[in-house]
Amino acid sequence: MNLFRFLLRRLAFAVFVLFCVLTLTFVLSHLIPGDVIQAWLGKEAEQFPNVAKLYAAKYHLNDPIYVQYFYYVTGMLQGNLGISPSRGFVPVTSVIEQTLPLTLQIVFLAFVLCVVLGLLLGILAARYHDTPIDTLIRIFYLGSYSSPPYFIGIVILVIASLYLRILPTGGAYNPLAVSPSPSITGFPILDALIQGNFAFAENASIHLILPALTLAIVTFGVITRVARSSLLDVMKTDYIRTARSKGLDEGSVFYRHGLPNAAISLITISSLVMTFLLTGAVFVEYLFSYPGMGHYAYTALQGSDYPGIMATVFVFAAIIITTNLVADILYAWADPEIRLG
Amino acid sequence: MDSQPDEGDARRGAGARVRDTLGLMTSNKESIIGFSIIMVFLVTAVVMEASALLNVQVTPYPANPLPNQASAILLPPSLAHPFGTDNLGRDVFSRILVATPYDFMIGFLVVGTAVIIGGLLGGLAGLRGGLLDEFLMRFTDIFFALPVLLIAMVIGAILGGGILNMSVALMITWWPPYARLARGESLKVAHQNYIEAARLSGQKAHRILIRHVLPNISGTMLIYATLDIGTVILVYSGLTFLGLGNKPPAPDWGQMVAAYNGWLLTDPWLAIIPGLVISMGVIGFSLLGDGVKDTLGIR
Q: CB distance from B297 to chain A under 8 Å?
């Protein structure tokens, strides 16, 4: 019962925060200097006053601001995010439908890579604490999480394109060699696998490797750092001393007793990891010309495509807030003391 | 952290505090290296800012040379041009030096504002407790959930880029961790005898907050703040990479990486060197942070 109330409260709060983000983007979009119509349709709008009038009527631009807010929120709830000038005036929703799955593919692979790499190095560093292995790992993770994602991306790009020409450095697949399957789930690789188009699945997967690797290298340090320090903390507790005094060897004390106890602290950083991955995607997708949502955010920013920017920020914020919610629930499930809070 | 704030702390001389802080920052190998890196950057920033104000050129070459002053284009690194020259014949080393004050200034500015906003909100929440505490902390939670870089991107897109708008954008989103930290610290001191005494002697809440609570929680806040400057520099460099920083031709580290990205396959050092400089600056703060936390036993 207590847990159920906790979940309900967290869910309500997540929805409320999302609503705040929505309001913030609305308020900001009304701070656009100058004529909104011109800002959205471009300079050519002046030559077509009729189009501008139609546009103003369609988007209720002449109504009072609270009426506009009402239309904005109800439109959002119905999935109407406006039209995207930088993509030739197609609905933002359809751009997101195409780009979001691509970004989620990268983020998923990057997440798996950085959890594996982060945990492995964190465990190694704690197991061989104060040895050269530990020092080396600390240098590696400090350097990686202190570097901007685009810097890591550029280094990988240079290495890959000058010295290691096996992996492709741009695009989501090679359109000259393979063609995508019709969409079922929206995720191109998954669709191709379902329909037996293995050539496309393989080609698209190879294109994922470098961008996902870049994101993973930028992010794994957060995990390594927390895994290492919480393992070192756990190994100092009475519980571990008891395990040692029972005559267990150090290896099994570490892996059987230490590791499971240190795992809880990793849940708390999962939303930080997601924030790193999504904001990093903006830079990485641009560098590797990967046509996902990060790339869309970048081009929308360069092209003053306000609906596009608003929508990408809203969707990214929604993903991060959802991750927060899931992390809270996992945390409450793993550590009963928190449930009361 | 488990260090109890003691009453005498606020009243000790400034000299002793500076000695304590310096001692903390040079307490182990990591923090010494980090501290030295930061000092190199800081001295560069101060010298560059002073020379800009006095209109004296201290860099080996002008950062934005007139066409007749420019060197040969795309020279590789050499003794005359340690980081080479770019596509317009500008010395990359000089441009990196000139950009230093911007990146550091925004770091101090954003973190400084975050300490003030967070300290006041969190300090008040911890001191008063009850409904006000609940309200202020839920308010903080909302801002906590906002993705910093994305909000700054929206503000940059709408109000335009530039160092001023970007500082404002980061200030709006940077304070929540400080509010949580200040609340936790102020909860610890809220029930100490001297606070009770001040309350019983009829002092107003804002006076207790400013005179008694804030001086006692400032130590922890300042340590956290110092270490946070690197993160601000990292995020700001990302924004300049997206074209939201200084207006060209004024240089920014991130903007240089973006601008030189086009020569990646023929002259890779152009983009790699400014990127490396950003990493070095941030690594300085990360090392100092790890070292200080180790000494204090904070995880």
A: no
Alpha helices of B26-91 — where are they, by DSSP H? Answer: 29-54
Helices B176-190/B214-241 angle, 10° precision: 170
| A–B interface: beta-carbon pairs under 8 A | 128
Identity of the residue in B142, B150, B286 whose CB atom sits nearest the CB atom of A279: B150
A229 has a chain B CB within 8 A of its CB? yes
pLDDT at B2 (0 to 100): 40
The token pair at A77 is: 């709830």
pLDDT along chain B (299 residues), means of 10: 44 64 76 91 90 81 72 77 81 88 88 92 86 88 81 83 88 91 84 80 79 78 83 92 83 88 84 92 88 72
Number of helical (H) and strand (E) elements in chain B, helices listed first = 12, 0
ipTM > 0.90, yes or no: no
The CA–CA distances, whole Å, from B244 to A3, A21, A231, A297, B50 equal 45, 21, 41, 14, 25
- Taking only residues 12 to 31 of chain A, the set having a beta carbon closer than 8 angstroms to any beta carbon of chain B reads 13, 16-17, 20-21, 24-25, 28-29, 31
Report yes or no on whether pTM surpasses 0.80: yes
Q: Show the low-confidence residues of chain A (pLDDT under 70).
A: 1, 32-45, 59, 335-341
Using the beta-carbon criterion (under 8 Å), do B151 and A32 form an inter-chain contact?
A: no
Of A33, A15, A25, nearest to A311 by C-alpha is: A25
Q: Using the beta-carbon criterion (under 8 Å), do B145 and A321 form an inter-chain contact?
A: yes
Place of tokens 């030189």: B260
Contacts B273 to A, Cβ<8 Å: none
What's the gap in Å between the CA of A255 and the closest CA on chain B?
21
> Collapsing DSSP states into helix, strand and coil, what is residue A23?
helix
At residue A124, the pLDDT reads 92
| Of A134, A316, A332, A1, residue with least CA distance to B154 | A316
What is the distance in angstroms between the Cα of A295 and the nearest Cα belonging to chain B? Answer: 11
